Amino acid sequence: MFCVLFFVLVQKVNACFCGTHYTGINNYSGSILTIPADTLNKGKFALGYSLNFQNYNSFSANTFRTILNKRIHSHSLDSVLTQSINLSYGLSDNLSLIANFPFKSYQGLSSTHSGIRFADGDSTGISDFSFFMKYRFLHEPSYSIALISGIKIPSGNTNQKNEIGELLSPDSQPGTGSWDPLVGLAVSKLFKNFVLHSSTLYQISTQGSQDIVVGDSLSANIGLSKKILKNKEFLKQKIGLDLVTEANFLWREKLEYQNLKDNNHGGAVIFLTPGLRLAVNDSFYNTFFLSFPIIQDLNGYQSDMALQLGFNSSFIF
User: Fold this and answer.
1) Which of 66, 105, 213, 230 lies at 20 to 30 Å from 171 by C-alpha?
2) What are the domain boundaries of the chain?
């Protein structure tokens, strides 16, 4: 996983991250955004909820003047709020099925066309559903490796309009209108005093609404978790607490329309993500985290990503 992350970072990137995370149902793993290699036990269900707020640095007045003078087509936004319901089932001890149902809200959208600035308002609605299979093909006492495969289906809203009634571009819609395969790998390694998790997930983007391809995307994550409280008795409940720190790399290809690439889409971001994970009776898990962008390489004129806040909760039964 270190080698994969290094390879991605040293390449010349021409993509961008559009704020979409896959949040897996974690068992006892202690990760945040990294997908662990752990799978549910056979016959077990996990129901989860995740909330992710991504803040952006919208364009300044000077930036807008420059863009308008150059007659560049670009987009700006203030924030994206993503809420998801997650459901997992252990088909066997080594095979878990996962479904993700997101709801997305873009706030403070603006765009420029032919030297004119438009206030596009907000865009809110059901986003595209995703279905995954996680197969743990190697399981030893100190480490596990799992293969991840899935599909994102075009179930999201693609009809949001701006304040003058024009259809918003696909990258500003809750849904993309495309069928997108996903494939990845997850590794978990147990050390004496901490656990290491790493995962990669690649999404192949196909043509969606308005005949636009929003671009392939890649996430590569690595994290360390350390248990600082284990089965402490509190109000007749067994409480556990993990301290977690992750590095999250996110990349997206340039948007494409009629074989033409948009030079103001695409790029890469690296986040540093610390968090806490609270376990109750080894069945109810809550994770709180902050995420700080430490490196950004976005193409052209785009809103830089800023602080990210998140909360994940899951119940295993």
Assistant:
1) 66
2) 2-316
Q: What percent of the chain has pLDDT over 70?
A: 91
Over residues 225-243, the pLDDT tens digits come to 998 988 788 878 899 899 9
DSSP string covering the chain, please? Answer: -HHHHHHHHHS-------S-------SS---SSSPPS--PPTT-EEEEEEEEEEEEEPPPHHHHHHHHHTT--EEE-SEEEEEEEEEEEEEETTEEEEEEEEEEEEEEEEEEETTEEEEEEEEEEE---EEEEEEEEEE-SSEEEEEEEEEE-S-S----B-TTSPBPPGGGSS-----EEEEEEEEEEE-SS-EEEEEEEEE-----GGGEE---EEEEEEEEEEEEEEEEEETTEEEEEEEEEEEEEEEEPPPEETTEE-TTS-EEEEEEEEEEEEEETTTEEEEEEEEEEEEEEE-SS-PEEEEEEEEEEEEE-
Structure tokens at 165: 């009634």
**Residue type at position 180:** D
Fold topology of 2-316? Porin (2.40.160)
State pLDDT tens for residues 159-186.
Answer: 999 878 888 988 899 999 999 999 999 9
